[in-house]
Each structure stands twice: as C-alpha cells, then as structure tokens.
Amino acid sequence: MSNREAPQPSPARITPFSNHPIVVGIVPHQPELVALTAASWSQAVGGVPLYFAYVDTQRFAVAEFPDGTVRHAEIDSDSIDDSWRSRQEGIERSLTSLLGPSGAQWEFRYLAGRPDRALTHLARAVDAAAIVVGTRAPGPGARFREAVEGSVAIRLSHHQHRPVLVVPLSVVDWETPLWR
What pTM does this model have? Predict the structure, then answer.
C-alpha cells in the first residue's frame, strides 16, 4: 500500500459492537427519531456509550484532540460570533430531556468543518463501532443543498470503514403513482 492509499474495509478492521461506542451525527431541531434509534441500538448491544455530535460548517477545526473534541474558530477571523455556545447548550438540553429517562450513557461533542470528516475523526478517536445519521429533512431547500453539498451518509460510507446506519426521516410513498 502506498502512502496515498487509505486502509480498506476488511474483516480485520471490524470493530465489535459490544463494548465500543456509537457516534451519532445530529443537527438542531432534527426529529427525535435519530437519537432514539441510536439509544435503542446502544441498548441492544449492551448499553454502549453514545457520542452525539453536531458539526458546525460555519466554523473550522483549529486542533483535534485524542478524546474527539476539537478547538474551533470562525471562518471569518474579523467576525465575533458566539452563537455557537447557545446552539451547543440547546442541543445538550434537548438530549438531556430526551435521553434522561432512558438511562443511556452519552456525551456531546461540538465539532466544526466538513461533517463527514469531523464524524470520522470522532469515530476514530473514540474507537466507535458505527456511525448513525439521519436523512436530510424534506423539502426543496434540502434537496438543493444535498445536490450541491452531497449526502453526509454517502460520503461517510465511502470514506471510512465503519458501518453507517441511516435513519429515514421522510419517505416516499411507493403506493402513490408518480404521475397523476
């Protein structure tokens, strides 16, 4: 393998589900289904820890640390915007409210940059068995963003060796004819 080739998926690279955490990519105001699916999966494999992560694409990672946390900064160095702190607090409050009764072990990481790269870094840092993400919210704006930016789930499945569980948040009714 040359220095430029990435290690490929193989049986030797499987991370067992038991005793290894799950990384969960979330966004503010996302349906609860993603977090609840991850919590259910965690319980099914023995109550492994969950690492929830939001990736702020309006910031960039300045430093990545071994525990999966990052130090981040604004893309525009002339701007001062601390709104990320209230976003982080809001996400943590939502997770506490949602997961508190379940007894699930979880931590939250506020990451920055490209979502696929940030989630891969976190999964590598915590030696996660898998990554859970939701599909993009429905609507024409989301379809346009996905066409321009691409799908995080697809990029994850093509650029790292861990399994990716994609939680559907909106489905097409195949019973309904496409043309009326």
Answer: 0.81
Q: How far is CA 167 from CA 58, 69, 132, 144, 163, in A?
A: 25, 24, 7, 20, 13
Residue 78 DSSP one-character state: T
Q: Is 50 exposed, middle or buried (0-12, 13-18, 19+ CB in 10 A)?
A: buried
pLDDT tens track for 30-47: 889 999 999 999 999 999
Spelled out in words, what is the top-level CATH class assigned to the domain 16-167? alpha beta
> How would you classify residue 156: left for phi > 0, otherwise alpha for psi between -120 and 50, otherwise beta?
alpha
Distance between CA atoms of residues 136 and 169, nearest Å = 7
Output the six-digit token pair for 21: 């955490």
**DSSP per-residue string spanning 92-140:** HHHHHHHHGGGT--EEEEEEES-HHHHHHHHHHHHT-SEEEEEPPPSSH
